[in-house]
Design brief:
single chain, 187 residues, alpha+beta, SH3 type barrels, 2 domains, five-stranded antiparallel sheet, elongated, disordered N terminus
């Protein structure tokens, strides 16, 4: 009886060692808007999961709304041994498939995950690169009450979240302050 227990302990130790050596990152496709559910379910199963998030700025009901969204909608990353956990991951509620080519799932490089994680900032959110505006750049407003109107970039305001632009309204150039996320360079 003790002997069987030792064999079982050895198998568990070998399984843990094998899991550490064979764990690779895979891209997991989720059903639409199920990324958080899949992340929770896989984490509850003891698997390592990475769901990169970013802040999205939207305009609704007359005001700006900040939402935290997945960087890659309908996808997240999981680190596991494909031989041991394939069916466990594949049949997790909310999972569509593990990405790969004809023969099955294909792992991605640890370097990809490291690069994404290096861009994480406050609140573990991915820092998006901001568009750089120079004085005199033509801009287009992409949301808010002035949506689709054009103007000329004048300057960043002191808090860097707002900008001053010149808009040609009723034949007169009027300075307007708006949130930075509401503008883009006009082509």
């Amino acid at each position: 009886m003790n002997r069987g227990h030792r064999i079982n302990e050895t198998n568990q130790i070998n399984q843990i060692d094998r899991t550490d050596q064979c764990s690779l990152w895979y891209v997991i496709q989720t059903k639409p808007a199920d990324e958080f559910r899949v992340e929770r379910n896989l984490t509850n199963q003891g698997l390592e999961v990475f769901l990169p998030l970013f802040e999205s700025h939207q305009y609704g009901n007359g005001r700006g709304i900040v939402k935290v969204k997945p960087l890659f909608p309908n996808y997240l990353f999981g680190r596991f041994d494909i031989d041991l956990h394939y069916y466990q991951v594949k049949w997790t509620r909310g999972v569509t498939k593990i990405l790969g080519f004809g023969n099955g799932p294909v792992p991605i490089s640890d370097k990809v995950i490291e690069k994404i994680k290096k861009r994480m900032g406050v609140g573990n959110l991915i820092k998006m690169e901001e568009e750089v505006f120079q004085e005199g750049d033509p801009i287009q407003i992409i949301s808010g009450p002035f949506k689709e109107l054009r103007g000329i970039f004048q300057r960043n305001m002191s808090d860097k979240r707002r900008v001053k632009i010149l808009m040609d309204l009723i034949g007169v150039e009027v300075p307007v302050q708006i949130p930075r996320w509401q503008i883009k360079k006009d082509a």
